[in-house]
Amino acid sequence: MAGPHGLGPRGFLTDEEKKNMPKVSAGLIKRIFGYLKPYWVQFIFVFIAILLSSVVGLFPSIITGRIVDQALVGKDLQLLIKLLILAFCTLAVSQIIGVIESYINSWISRRIIFDMKNQMYDHLQHMPHSFFTSEKQGDIITRMNTDISGVSSVISGTLSSIVSNVATVVTTLVALFSMSWQLAIVGIIVIPLLILPTKTVGRTRWKLLSESQAKQDEMNQLINETLSVSGSMLVKLFTREKEEYERFVKVNEEVTKLSLKETRSGSWFRVVMGMFTQIGPLLIYFAGGYFIINNLDTTLTVGTITATVALVNRLYRPVESLLNIGVDFTRSLALFTRIFDYFDKEATIVSPENGKKPDVQNADIAYEHVSFSYIPEKPLLKDINFRVPGGKMYAVVGPSGSGKSTVVNFLPRLYDVDAGRVTIGGVDVRDFDLQYLRDCIGVVTQETYLFNGTIRENLLYARESATEEELEEACKIANIHDYITSQPDGYDTIVGNRGLKLSGGEKQRISIARVILKDPKILILDEATSALDSISESSIQDALEHMMEGRTSIVIAHRLTTILKADSILVVKDGVIAEQGTHDELLARNGVYRELYETQFRKVIDYESGHQE
């Protein structure tokens, strides 16, 4: 919140801003100006408009002096009218130039934001999956929206403000000293008096504003947690409405008190500033009157004094604003630094130049001495070796956290191996054209994600060119067509945010239909039936088997019914393939698989058997 004349709390840096103050370098400045360079012609027009506006803005004050000296003292009504019209015209011209300058400035700002947002979105789209698992979603959105949008205030605010204020100060000083250098000095010496109260009161207001913002953030967090879908349900289930209300009232009261303190401080600040801004004109009137009364300057007139007062008042605002250049400049650099920090994050998983596009139909998949870790000192997978013959279905099982999902994520290159290699048909997946590779692989994930749109839009995400018949056929295979057509809007039914309007089983079946529509050569099912009850699972098991026919498939599952149909089972434990074989072979070994069978799969079998009885 800025005080009068542009000063106040904004004239100070927070402790965090001081700590993270960006390092000014020629490279950083050059990089920033790289975004301004395409619009240098428009910037020239902006600067010309600013200069014209500053010059034209002098005339109303100068004309005021002529009105006093020539029209009023000379009692010339005709001249008075002419001068008033001229003053009005110069004001109008100044305003029109200001509007033009503001529009060009806004146009430049919006175009630069347009360019930066496009560049950022494209860059983030190509970031590896690990980036999105490690970065906070809120930080990503802040960079995309708040930070880049803030560039507008840098261009139309900081940059243009500096040029405009400098032009105003220079032209005003020239006009002041050309009329009366004595009165000009009197008007200027009051400027330090404006700085002292501003800095003192400003620090107090800045502290109060910071505390108020911290409490406001606490209130927003409370609202977000307790009034969200999941949060409100939790509050209701544990009957905590009264306690949460009392928490809210307490925080709300603190926010209100701090806000009132800041407002009260600001009111007194405006009173003090208002008094100090009147000292300059009063001193000018005194000095001018003293010179005239004592005949010390015979060239000095009442009109000159009046014009000087008007010009000095015009001088205060830009001078005070220029005092904050350091803070505005630092914040502007910090804004660009945060944006560039994201631009500089390397897209480690990229498509190689002239990437290969081999036929992967019924091609073997091989993992050769694969090792991987999310944290360097904590290896997750160590020397993984196995081969999935073309057209076969292999199941991957293991304790929670053993790395089952990570193993399959190497195929579509959501992650790249640290050592070893993964091949399809003898070709390293890192040598594939990345888009071609991912087009060949269909994945049904454990956590189904649907966009907040219609069922049709979510299905066509797999293949935009799919016909209505293909769409319906895929849904019939996934056993979701009847449900969709029973809805009032059919395939145009809105699924809600993340598909919240659908049950887990319905979302999962739409996800399966989406993969069926993609018609991939290789299939990965990561707990694909985990969200389904026994009846739902049974109803689409045939569909999954039909989809896996003729495709090389890797299935991660806790359901024994799925594992039993696998051509071979891979048991992952402690970062290695502990065992491999068929269900009967692994049971006979009395090893890790046998333990999983007794602790996990047997419970499911007993549960389902009990319900069938």
Compact summary:
This protein is an alpha/beta fold.
Describe it for me?
- The structure is a single chain.
- With about 625 residues, this protein is an alpha/beta fold.
- It has a domain of about 210 residues: ABC transporter transmembrane region fold (Up-down Bundle), CATH 1.20.1560.
- The chain is elongated.
- A hairpin with a 2-residue loop joins strand 4 and strand 5.
- Rg is 36 Å
At CATH's second level, what is the architecture of the domain at 15-180 and 300-343? Answer: Up-down Bundle
Structural class per helix/strand content?
alpha/beta
Low-pLDDT sequence parts: 1-9, 607-613
Q: What is the third-level CATH name, the topology of the domain at 15-180 and 300-343?
A: ABC transporter transmembrane region fold
Mean pLDDT: 81
Under CATH at level 1, the class of the domain at 15-180 and 300-343 stands as Mainly Alpha
The total count of helices amounts to: 23
Approximate shape: elongated
**How many extended strands?**
10
> CATH H-level name of the domain at 15-180 and 300-343... which superfamily?
ABC transporter type 1, transmembrane domain
> Termini separation (Å)?
71 Å
Beta-strand fraction estimate: 5-15%
Helix-residue proportion: 55-70%
Task: Order the strands across the largest sheet as they lie in space.
Answer: 6-7-8-3-9-10
Give the biggest beta sheet: 6 strands, mixed
